[in-house]
Amino acid sequence: MPIKGLVIDLDGSVYVGDKPISGVPEALEELRSKGIKLLFLTNNATKTPQEYVKKLEGMGIRASIEEVLTSSVIAASYIKRVYGPSRIFVVGTKALEEVLRSHGHEIVAFDSDVVVAGLDFNFDYQKLARASREIRRGAKFVATNIDATIPLEDGVMPGAGSIVKAIEIASGVRPLVVGKPSRIAMREALMRLGLRPSEVLVVGDRPETDVKMGKRFGCITALVLTGVVKEAALKGLPETLRPHFVLKSLAEVPRLI
Fold first, then answer.
1. Owning domain of residue 125
2. DSSP state of 107
3. Is-above-0.85 flag for pTM?
4. Any residues with CB less than 8 A from the CB of 232 and at least 6 apart, and which?
5. 25: cis peptide before it, omega within 30°?
6. Are 54 and 60 in contact (CB under 8 A)?
7. What is the pLDDT of residues 20-64, one digit of tens each?
C-alpha cells in the first residue's frame, strides 16, 4: 500500500478517556520509523493543540503542535479566512475560546458576527437562549462538529452534536459544520501533510465521520473497533460509510501498511 501519511482520530482510536489503547503508542512509533507522516485530527474542541500534545506525551506518544489539528483550529482559521477577524459568541470550553482568540477573533456575549458551538460541559438553557437569539438576529452559525456521543472509559456521554442540534432547533438555522466529515477539515489535513489523497490513510472509529470524510476525497480508510462502533453495526452500511479495512485496533496499522 503506497501510503505516505496517516490522518488519525484520537478519542476511541488512540485512547479512550485518559487511557491509551494497548499497542497504539508502539505502533505510532513504528510508523514514524518507516517515515510515515502522522496527523492527529480530532473533532473534540475541549482542549487546545498544546494540551493534546501534553496528553499524548503523557501516554508515551510523541507529537508536535503541527501534528495536532482540532475542530477548534479549523473553525478559527475558516472564520478568519472567510469572514475576517470576527466577534464570536461561544458555546464551548475555555480551550475553544483560547484558540479563537489566538486567531485574532474577539469573544463576546452579544452582538456577535458568528456563533461557534462545540462540546460544552456547562451548557444550560440560558446559553441555548442566548445562542439562538444571536443566530436569529443574523449571526453565522458554525459547529465544531456534530458527533452525538464521545467515548469514555466507563461508556459514552453526549457529544457536541447533542448541543448543536438543540441550538439548531431553537434558532431554526442549520450550522456550517467544520469538523469531520466536512471537506473543510479534510482539505486542512491534506494541506498540513503536504500529500495527495491517494497517499493518505484515514483511521478512526466512526463511519459517519472518519470514513465518510476520507472516502469523499479518495483516501484509503480504516475503521478501528476500539471506540463507539462495533463490527456488528457495520452490516448494511452504505458505500459512502463502508471502510476499506476494519481493524481491531490502530495497533494493526503498521502490519496493514
1. 85-177
2. E
3. yes
4. none
5. no
6. no
7. 999 999 999 999 999 999 999 999 999 999 999 999 999 999 999
Q: From the CA atom positions of the chain, what is the Rg in Å?
A: 18
With cell 445562542, the residue in question is: 131
Q: Are residues 187 and 135 in the same domain?
A: no
CB neighbour list of residue 221: distance below 8 Å, 6 or more residues apart: 201, 202, 203, 210, 211, 214, 215, 243, 244, 245
One domain for residues 238 and 224: yes
Annotated catalytic residues are 9, 11
* pLDDT tens digits, 130-166: 999 999 999 999 999 998 887 666 777 899 999 999 9
Last residue of a domain, one of 177, 210, 241: 177
Backbone phi, psi, residue 53, to 5°: -60, -45
Using CA atoms, how far apart are residues 129 and 239, in angstroms rounded to an integer?
Answer: 39
Q: Whole-angstrom Cα distance, residue 85 to residue 79?
A: 7
